[in-house]
């Protein structure tokens, strides 16, 4: 009963918010959005059952239980302990919980989030996960709402499926995990970025939403900001270039290129100043360290890209093709050794099939032309490749690979569904018409002369 009432109230809150959000969508879109909402609620319940009742351990339980200590203090004296919960959120020193301050910055933020969730839900893990799942769902819905006007109507339902229905994205973003919180921030930042590129929208509101999303991502998954900033700079450059060229083939615009790259590099350097772990000078060392840690940990789902962890930038770049393949397509079916891995393998087989089908139907050259004419697809391509490279180089376990790559999956699916034609070309009919058009006309019979 203690779990049931807060969970029921949380679901009612989510349903009410969903009812307001559905305005402006056509009926077919509404059905898919409601289905995605239900999937997120189910995934939240599954997260609790699998993590707490089946395995009995996990990051989610650690965040919630440690945060529960702060929440208990807030229930006794809110004004005395609430500042500690806020301090944990922003990775600052607390007055009463020094043992929590010793955690890594992102983990401290998760303890802060866990404390507020524990306090608001009266200690109900089910209600807390449902609340996070609802927030993650609306983050993805914000992505779709932002991109929806930029694509033809025939792609809208595909985008909903790609952004909000993929199993790994739904499951791993529906618990008290860093990836779930990052998806909320990524959705807000993407919505703000798209609105910022639209001259008809309020720039101030767009900047605020973009800033809030960036702060959320920076607190829990800092490395998302680098690919996001570079991809956003590319969007700005492509959009300005296409606008000045009248939609024709993009030509180099030095001023806009310099502005875009300066903005992107400024954000990347700023990230390194705030979070030294992700500074440009430390990226190679950090990747090498994570690879070495992964090589020491053995298990059925562990893998390694090489026998030893390269310590130079050239050595890391040499593994880039394999890292991209790993992040964009693995695990393969034959690599699955449990139910979770099998589901992930089936999902990535579907994704790989979509990629091959799109390339088969359009061809490589036409696919590239479609991307080059669309700033949103340029953004998606650059973000996916950079993020996949980072995840592929630093992840050494198939289970965590499925979880770590979910921030790129909505953009990956958007890219694939945009490249996939609405229907397969009718090659036999087209070829027959070409033959008929190429056949020379029969000469007219000359008039008979007597």
TrEMBL record:
It comes from the Bacteria. Keywords: Membrane, Transmembrane, Transmembrane helix. The keyword Protease does not apply. The chain crosses the membrane at residues 6-25, 32-50, 125-143, 180-197, 204-237, 257-280, 339-360, 376-394, 406-424. The keyword rRNA processing does not apply. This is Glycosyltransferase RgtA/B/C/D-like domain-containing protein.
